[in-house]
């Protein structure tokens, strides 16, 4: 929990600076709601989530007959927790063996780094892990993954380092799933190249990768994780939508929460899918191996406020 506190230091400092004028000894009036609205919008919370939060807060204020702003902080925390709790559904990797996880997202969001962190996370739970270097576009991604594999004592399946040959990511991941079956491995983490949702041929390619994984193991991939950068702001919502339409995203990872003074994008995602929000499996709060944490709504909101 203190790791999360540390990681969210910037968001917290930003918020507490803004909230200091808000939650003091003053009346709860329209002016206060307007100030709160501005704070939420500047933290990337987005219009939908901001309206939902303000509406819920007004109801709570009325119901509990709150009349001083000092009482509002607790009420806002509770409201946030109830918005974010539906996102907090941890990933259960014990249902299949190997449990095949496909990692997707746009360029630079932290996919390869996150795979290193996931490998570390599952290794420290005593599970065996195999990495598939499916980002065959970026030579550095392959090197990076091999280095993560070495640090974690984990096998990496990659194509030969032949720069003349254009890599086939689907083939690499197909081989990796088969290797994992043969070696009785618990978890396969498959990296894929970053792609923009507007690059239609690359969106077709990622669908093909998914189909080929299913050929190696009928019900795989068991999890399709979309990695999002917390600094992306509202654009993260369109990334979720586009990758979900192409692949059927089953989980999200939000990286770089430590590097942002914002963080409201989590609330924006929750409000975007009021019925059935995507599961936020993990949050990234730093560049270190253990800077990836399962998402817990209460822990997150607490780290934002105290
Ligand atoms: P990819 O292109 O999606 O595979 O992105 P990379 O894994 O190469 O990461 C891009 C950069 O983001 C690297 O410099 C990482 O160290 C950095 N990064 C990834 N996750 C986090 C995080 O949670 N916090 C911080 N501060 N940096 C991160």
Automatic annotation (TrEMBL):
GO molecular function: GTP binding; GTPase activity; signal recognition particle binding
Range of residues in the leader sequence: none
Keyword match Cytoplasm: yes
Swiss-Prot/TrEMBL catalytic activity: GTP + H2O = GDP + phosphate + H(+)
GO terms under cellular component: cytoplasm; plasma membrane
Residues engaged in binding GTP: 105-112, 191-195, 255-258
Function: Involved in targeting and insertion of nascent membrane proteins into the cytoplasmic membrane. Acts as a receptor for the complex formed by the signal recognition particle (SRP) and the ribosome-nascent chain (RNC). Interaction with SRP-RNC leads to the transfer of the RNC complex to the Sec translocase for insertion into the membrane, the hydrolysis of GTP by both Ffh and FtsY, and the dissociation of the SRP-FtsY complex into the individual components.
Protein name listed in UniProt: Signal recognition particle receptor FtsY
């Amino acid at each position: 929990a203190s790791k999360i506190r540390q990681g969210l230091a910037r968001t917290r400092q930003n918020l507490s600076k803004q909230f200091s004028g808000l939650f003091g000894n003053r009346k709860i009036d329209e002016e206060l709601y307007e100030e709160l609205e501005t704070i939420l919008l500047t933290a990337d919370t987005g219009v939908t989530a901001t309206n939902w939060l303000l509406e819920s807060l007004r109801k709570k204020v009325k119901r509990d007959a709150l009349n001083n702003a000092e009482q509002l902080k607790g009420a806002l925390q509770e409201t946030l927790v109830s918005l974010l709790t539906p996102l907090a559904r941890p990933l259960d990797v014990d249902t299949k063996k190997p449990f095949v996880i496909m990692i997707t997202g746009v360029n630079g969001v932290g996919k390869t780094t996150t795979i290193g962190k996931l490998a570390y996370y599952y290794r420290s739970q005593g599970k065996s892990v195999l990495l598939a270097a499916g980002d065959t576009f970026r030579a550095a991604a392959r090197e990076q993954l091999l280095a993560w594999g070495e640090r974690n004592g984990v096998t990496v399946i990659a194509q030969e380092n032949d720069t003349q040959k254009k890599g086939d990511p689907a083939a690499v991941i197909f081989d990796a799933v088969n290797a994992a079956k043969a070696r009785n491995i618990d978890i396969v983490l498959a990296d894929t190249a970053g792609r923009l949702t507007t690059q239609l041929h690359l969106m077709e390619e990622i669908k093909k990768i998914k189909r080929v994984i299913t050929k190696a193991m009928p019900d795989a991939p068991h999890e399709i994780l979309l990695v999002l950068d917390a600094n992306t702001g509202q654009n993260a919502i369109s990334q979720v939508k586009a990758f979900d339409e192409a692949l059927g995203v089953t989980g999200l990872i939000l990286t770089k929460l430590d590097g942002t003074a914002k963080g409201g994008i989590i609330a924006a995602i929750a409000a975007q899918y009021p019925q059935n929000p995507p599961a936020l499996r993990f949050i990234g709060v730093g560049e270190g191996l253990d800077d990836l944490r399962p998402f817990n709504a209460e822990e997150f909101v607490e780290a934002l406020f105290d």
